[in-house]
């Protein structure tokens, strides 16, 4: 059945335009949580370059989002996206009249027939949800709605203290959720206000359906902590704690005389993956103290494994090049236009910024890294031609036989 679902998923994706729902970053080729965070921060920081501005970031939580899909509403949306009627009929049959039972040990519940929601663990479920929410888009140019599956973030770019457009956007989003049977969980919805004005007045609370939304100093956004000061100390502390906990298991494996190659494999899969999660979004803006704290974790792992390991800077630079290469290959990526090739065809245009906050964000850093590592290479032809692949060397994790 999963093989058939994959074939249907490929067929659906082939029928969709390349520009379909550009700010939905889940289950899309060449896109990840890093892109969602980077776009959110870049939009915010670019807006904060102007005097008298601030931003509101609303992190929305839906209750059991995948279980509330209504097949009839979904089919109407699929027909509006010009999917074939036969495909829509198959999807409706796939979602309707599904028998379901629950097993707990030797006990089995009586069967229940369901015609709402999408089956858990199915290949098509994530894609169908993104199609179900594809018409959720901002109605005001000063707002941005970033989506990663069921994680939805409303970015309100406010000027002159006028929040009318932002609050109207939130109310429209709430009404859209009600019309599509998506229940907004106000108790888990958080708002962060990023305001660097010297004389900032008190901000009025935000209410949704009569409930006051909690204003938080920081919030976990797609696995990364974002604070109202846009510093990365909270995120660094969380990463360091998680990585140090896993160092304990690396020590145990070392005591049991596991060979070095396997120790390094364990390090890469369980510790390095934690250290580098969304590293392109936070590395350039992190402080020297934050980087030193995480580099100590790598140094400890290096002593345990007895093998040289790539530094945090090397890991960040490598992933920055990989992420930049993915964006350049995707002409429909929301950030593709930020990489503007100069008329010489040799370098990309640097971004102008008034503050170090924007300078040390991902996209300006990516352009500097791209120009620095490839000063004479033409990665993308001018006049919006398709990019050429970057030659990204792989990092060597293991020493040669002589070193071992």
UniProtKB/TrEMBL annotation:
PROSITE patterns: RT_POL. Pfam families: ALKBH8_N (PF09004), RVT_1 (PF00078). Residues 1-226 form the Reverse transcriptase domain. One of its GO terms (molecular function) is methyltransferase activity. InterPro entries: AlkB_hom8_N, DNA/RNA_pol_sf, RT_dom. It comes from the Eukaryota. PANTHER family: REVERSE TRANSCRIPTASE DOMAIN-CONTAINING PROTEIN. This is Reverse transcriptase domain-containing protein. It comes from Gadus morhua (Atlantic cod).
